[in-house]
Amino acid sequence: MDQARSFVAVAEELHFGRAAERLNMTQPPLSRQIQKLERSVGVELLERDNRKVSLTAAGHAFLIDARRLVISAERAPLNARRIASGQFGELRIGFTAASGFSLLGPLLSEISTRLPNVHLELFEMVTGEQITALQDGDIDLGLARPPFDEKTFESQMLFSESLYVAVPTGHRLDLLPRELMVEDLAGEPLIMHSATKARYFYDLVVREIDIEHQNVVHSVSQILTMITLVAAGRGIAFVPESAKLLGVDGVSYHRLEDTTPDAVELHAIWNRDYKNPALTKLVQIVRDSMQA
């Protein structure tokens, strides 16, 4: 590194005396540095005589890389300090599809504002996949549904919302002049959550509603798929209130009067023994957002 810095000074000054003064050293050791560099590279980088110093063709080419090397070396300690403080680095965030259209956008905007030099990678995953990815170190933070092991993960509940029933616009349930009751749904074809791939919503729905399983016509894992099937007239579906944000035409949303308010929860979760300094900053952003 000292040889590269010495070469850059001589190449820019084209004078050993001025270059030595710039580097706060005497001329003889500077000359020896350049000679060692040329022997190491294997070509002559400078042409010198008693009157002037000039760059060879190889010297011109070498100067470009030498400048980059010197700049990188000067930046390296600062970058290391920034990474250690969480200002630089990488964050990998897992999210459920439903969180993607309700919370993810505002969170990413806040991260970009407060951590502009942190690179973000996003992974759409159901909660079970996020938990596995957190355990394997493949993501740093998940936007997921409970339950999860509180001994392994720290968490922050981000928001809760109510369960709604999505029905085709103009359907008899859509035309009732009152809030819907579970008993109103009797006999309706149901678009249900998958018991394996959408376990959180499946368990929530069967806990809140006495499902007529013989009426289930489709079992799917994604909220958007459910809403699309409702719009096609295939049945009715139980979805979080934020599904309204999808803006799918031909679908109306109704609160079920006899279900638990704010039963649908979304949490940020992360490993208690995490090592990524940028995650410390992200956790603070998440917690600040709950106090705003």
Automatic annotation (TrEMBL):
It comes from the Bacteria. SUPFAM superfamilies: Periplasmic binding protein-like II, Winged helix' DNA-binding domain. The keyword Transcription regulation applies. The keyword Mitochondrion does not apply. It holds the Pfam family HTH_1. Keywords: DNA-binding, Transcription, Transcription regulation. Residues 1-56 form the HTH lysR-type domain. GO terms for molecular function: DNA binding. Belongs to the LysR transcriptional regulatory family. This is DNA-binding transcriptional LysR family regulator. It comes from Paeniglutamicibacter psychrophenolicus.
